[in-house]
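Tokens in:
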């Protein structure tokens, strides 16, 4: 089975995913890295030169390819839930887990990183709040949810391992 991590930017999908994969001896795949490999440009350049719709098309293509494989921890990008087709592709071979954090914590975790074009605006915290509101419903596509605000990366990893051990997916 696969374990796919979804959630807003800065909720820890990439860092938690890496550590989880190491613990479980699974392959780690970061969809953002796969997009960069597929397209050949860094994410900010893709957004600046071809726009968000084009980025979403590459994201969908890569999600379909990776979702069809097995025994991976998949860290998605925060916008993967914008297309139902992506969620279906991630669910076909495993479990999808949502990571959450408060807007303030997300802001603190992302403010020193210029690799997220959607947050390169005058008021990133306001943008975080409005995007969270826009995406609220789509993030409800899984019952497995973890609020990471007060947790360390290791504690989040442990919680995911507990969810996976108790889930219907464990035999797969
Ligand atoms: N639970 C956590 N507690 C503190 N810092 C965290 C936690 N999870 C992630 N971080 C930090 O927040 C930043 C963004 O994490 P990242 O894994 O890139 O998030 P995402 O992939 O969801 O955008 C990184 O600097 C990471 O070390
Ligand atoms: O939320 C989003 O729309 C995005 C999240 C980013 O990934 P992270 O969630 O890993 O930051 C990356 O895919 C891109 O900048 C768009
Ligand atoms: Mg990431």
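Residues out:
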């Amino acid at each position: 089975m696969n374990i796919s991590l979804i959630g807003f930017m800065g909720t820890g999908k990439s860092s938690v995913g890496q550590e989880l994969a190491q613990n479980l001896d699974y392959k780690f795949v970061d969809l953002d890295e796969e997009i960069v490999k597929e397209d050949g440009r860094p994410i900010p350049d893709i957004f600046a030169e071809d726009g968000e719709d084009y980025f979403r098309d590459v994201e969908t293509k890569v999600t379909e390819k990776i979702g069809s494989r097995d025994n991976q921890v998949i860290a998605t990008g925060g916008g993967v839930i914008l297309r139902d087709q992506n969620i279906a592709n991630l669910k076909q071979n495993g479990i999808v887990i949502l990571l959450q954090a408060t807007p303030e914590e997300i802001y603190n975790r992302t403010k020193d990183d210029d690799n997220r074009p959607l947050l390169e605006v005058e008021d990133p915290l306001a943008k975080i709040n409005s995007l969270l509101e826009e995406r609220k419903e789509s993030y409800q596509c899984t019952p497995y949810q973890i609020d990471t605000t007060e947790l360390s990366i290791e504690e989040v990893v442990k919680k995911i391992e507990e969810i996976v051990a108790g889930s219907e997916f464990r035999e797969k």
